[in-house]
Specification:
Largest sheet: none
Shape: globular
Helix content: over 70%
Structural class: mainly alpha
Number of strands: 0
Length: 247
């Protein structure tokens, strides 16, 4: 049932060229904008580029944001169109349905991360110590996290506009507190405590480990496993809150 659902969603996406373009092209275009933003900076010899730090983090943040939007809106359309209600009259379980969506969008997330990482390394010469494969792995997990959160939040929205309104509540705080703009040690105690339990924080920490070490570290694997556990937990919560339709 799970893979049948995933196959159906992928077939639908194949005919939705705008969604495919949004998933595969937009993160690479945003990464391009980040590169040119710092193109003219003047640095002392041997000093690392700002793009090498910020661009690396964007490889995880952009897929996370895009997949959250695409997934939440797509799932809401399935419910408002009555497709979800018809599917749930069959023997399919809610968990099979949700995990099927997760599998389908995870495949798209992997392609998205490969495209964005290829642009970062081959076009903009991203220079870090760690392996590009590890960067892709964290980026994919982060994109799947966006899928899981999008599926969860879609259950509480009645319109596409309401689905988009979850971004300032779910996505933006994670971007602000993940340590990209201000080191968590420099935050006040309340914000630091909140940042310490947000999923995106573990992603940023894992990428920092990859940037500073040639080999995978135990801290990086620990952060990756925590993110994977959060993804599974969010998908289970989404299956419990899934409604048949939105009137």
């Amino acid at each position: 049932m799970t893979f049948a659902t995933a196959t159906r969603v992928l077939r639908q996406l194949r005919h939705d060229h705008r969604s495919v373009a949004l998933i595969l092209v937009v993160p690479a275009l945003l990464l391009t904008a980040v590169y040119f933003l710092f193109e003219n900076e003047t640095l002392p010899p041997g000093f690392p580029r700002t793009f090498d730090r910020v661009g690396l983090m964007m490889l995880a943040i952009f897929p996370f944001v895009v997949m959250f939007l695409v997934t939440s809106i797509t799932m809401l359309r399935e419910r408002t169109s009555g497709t979800l209600e018809r599917l749930l009259t069959t023997p399919i379980h809610k968990a099979d349905l949700l995990f099927g969506y997760a599998v389908a969008f995870s495949i798209m997330a992997a392609l998205q991360s490969l495209v964005a990482t290829a642009v970062a390394y081959w076009i903009f010469d991203l220079d870090i110590k760690g392996s590009p494969g590890l960067v892709v792995m964290i980026a994919v997990i982060n994109a799947v996290l966006g899928v899981a959160l999008g599926l969860l939040c879609s259950a509480f929205a009645r319109t596409e506009f309401q689905a988009v309104q979850f971004m300032p509540v779910v996505v933006v705080p994670q971007i602000l507190l993940c340590g990209l703009f201000v080191a968590r040690d420099d935050m006040n105690e309340v914000l630091e405590a909140i940042a310490g339990v947000l999923p995106l924080t573990f992603s940023v920490d894992a990428l920092k480990e990859i940037a500073g070490n040639a080999d995978a570290t135990s801290v990086m694997w620990q952060d990756a496993l925590i993110m994977g556990g959060i993804v599974v937990g969010v998908l289970v919560m989404a299956s419990l809150t899934l409604r048949r339709q939105t009137r």
